[in-house]
Prior knowledge:
alpha+beta, 5-stranded antiparallel β-sheet, 4-stranded antiparallel β-sheet, 9 strands
Amino acid sequence: xxxxxxxxxxxxxxxxxxxxxxxxxxxxxxxxxxxxxxxxxxxxxxxxxxxxxxxxxxxxxxxxxxxxxxxxxxxxxxxxxxxxxxxxxxxxxxxxxxxxxxxxxxxxxxxxxxxxxxxxxxxxxxxxxxxxxxxxxxxxxxxxxxxxxxxxxxxxxxxxxxxxxxxx
Length: 168
């Protein structure tokens, strides 16, 4: 049997995110990193400085990793960029999560989700924060790689259809 490592996001919310123009943004989050197989984007949350993306246990956000071994993840980072669809994808801030900390947490606390708080920075200034829960999982599969990638895509697409007001 073969498999891959993936990040499983079980909770995500923003706090005090604003665009500096006294207008309430329509934020969304993009997940990036050299160890992420492909960019994943959340749907926008309409008019909220404190957005919450609804994620259920039945369909969490899955971010497949390119790293073949757990030790290869130690020096990787996950970049989270927050943008505003209300103003043509205006940049609202970004922060990063050290995946090495997540690997060490996984070993220490036996696979329970890790709670994180990521301060967002926009051009050197504080821009709010993202708070959530994430865990590192090993996914074993018997199907071909293409079939497996399609299953992850379908699961992520279904998750965003379940989010009220999702447009992405």
